[in-house]
Sequence to fold (281 residues):
Amino acid sequence: MKLSFFLAIILLLGSGLGFFSYKYWSFGPGVIILFISGILLALVYIFNKDINIWHHRKNKIGLDQKEKDFINNHFPLIHCVPQDSRDLFYKKISLFKVDKEFIDQGMDGVPYQAILLSGAYAAFFCLSKENYSVPFPKIPVYVFYNHAFPSPQFPKSLHISETHKEDGTLIFSIPHLLKGSYEPLKFFNSGLYESAKSAIKPDFYENNLPSAGKLCLLGGYTLQDLEKYMGIPKEYIDQRALAITLFYTRNQHFKKMFPVAFENLKAQMIYPASEEAFVVN
Fold:
């Protein structure tokens, strides 16, 4: 139970007690109890997220075992997370769950698998910050569809994912998010791609990156194939995020085909001590 929810219940009971004690028992202080409880309840509502994040940080709350097992079995980059950083990684995902607003479109709630995987990608790219901080603090909203979707930016095409940095929003088609994570050698990993796009900093060193067309050949498809699968014009495909996606999902092939770009990315990305950690090549 979230702390804010627990506090809200206590304060609602306090408000009820104050109301009934004054109305039916003529207990004067009941008005004061009602007033104070109402004010505190409003503050809990306003600072709901901040209260829960504070509680998580104070108690260092992480994922439960079921959630850890899911991440360990289905997050394709788990072997790139150093063992001594796993606990921090899980706690960052837990903070992600508290911090973000998850909006479902045409569904009855967002499946926990989609939330955990989205959190894992965000936590992964923020793992270099060795503190208990919220991943992607400038992206407070995640929107999920159960299918490819149109958007104001691309109203005439159905696409599988989208990033709106200006609005602080990431949008995913859940089926594409899941299969890209479960079978990253077979399907394009939209969760990794959009998270990489959101994580790229202004000082990102992108010299010697292969063209999007050459990167696609590394992935086993053409740029036109990727354009059709993603549902967006090829000029909107982020070359840097695509390179990072393939750097992780086709690591050894990337190293052989583009050694200079590989070393540049390796110097900027989280990289395991042993390349044997890459179960996906």
Residues 52-277 form one domain. Residues 59 and 169 are 28 Å apart (CA to CA).
